[in-house]
Queue: 2 jobs
Job 1
Amino acid sequence: MLALLLAAAATATTATPAPPAMQSAAKPAIVRTKDGRVVGRETTIPFASQQGLYSWTAGPTDSSVYVQDNFGKWYLVKMAGPCMMNNIGIGLAYSTGPTGSFGPFSKIYSTEPPHMSCPVISVTNALPPASHRKDRKEKS
């Protein structure tokens, strides 16, 4: 009987933790907007064809803009290729997808020369751009 217990103990395996090099990296912290939306998550802007978009400002690249809906929510819109060249002095117009939402089937147009048309490739939830944040520090 003792031999059976020793044999069983010898064949029993115990889980050992993986070495630190094989463990996955720590998950990045999830950043949320004040209304709980996850920043960077793909989305669409519902009812853009009826309620419109309130404002826009230049994005971090030549192929992106920040847009704000009529509820005060900010989104980062990425376009196919350099398009608006961060020219915040031009007016913008847009078309929505078939459901009236603003998203990857939409386009952004400049209303002034050179009248560019820019296909939207993604819309993600965003924090307000730095120029529109209430908590930004004023420079003296």
Note: Residues 115 and 128 are 27 Å apart (CA to CA).
Job 2
Amino acid sequence: MSRVILYDKDGTLLNFQKLWTPYARKSIDSFVERFDMENVREALSRDLGYVDGVIQANSTIAAGTGSQIHQVFESYHEGGGQWAKDFYEENIDLLYQDMALIDGAREVLVKGMNKGYKNVIVTSDSRDSTMRFIEKFQLDEYIYDVICGDDNDFKKPDYRVVKSFIDSHDFELSDYVMIGDNEADTLLGYDEGLFTIGVLSGTCSKEHLKGADMVIESVEDLFDQEGNFILDA
């Protein structure tokens, strides 16, 4: 059976906490210092979704696009959004260095490709960061296509994020499976009937993965010992 596996990136293929927790702390520290706004640190952290040193499930940092994150900074200081965008671009090389794959992520992509599946990354992150991720871990040969947060004006879980891709390929909707670590992924295409699998390798526990048809620990569980996909085993 042909399948198209839609993979979220951060928290699904990429170790989310190792990369984004230090960045969240650093960006908040730098913002309050730059604008002399120590008094907003707690509120800003909460609105971003960084509480007590932990990124919260389904928060702006965990599930939002870059523009949504920048809007939070803008809400605290005029020009804060542009500052946040510039800060991200200034630190993208450091983020690149801190990227780490989820255990088994490469092997899962290889297994899918070897079965004739199309591996597609569907992420809220920027195309620049996503292509750096693919380059760093030499995943290009395993990835059929990439849909990024700055490719269009739609944001997960809006089905229109993937609609043009689906409409342009000769697969049935039942051939598609979305894999992700937050409800922006597990609610993607919910009304249209897209099958979604939640993973617990990111910021969410099972109760946060609204709309998921199935929940597993991580992408390592997508294929069994014989190489059968979880929905075909």
Note: The mean pLDDT is 96.
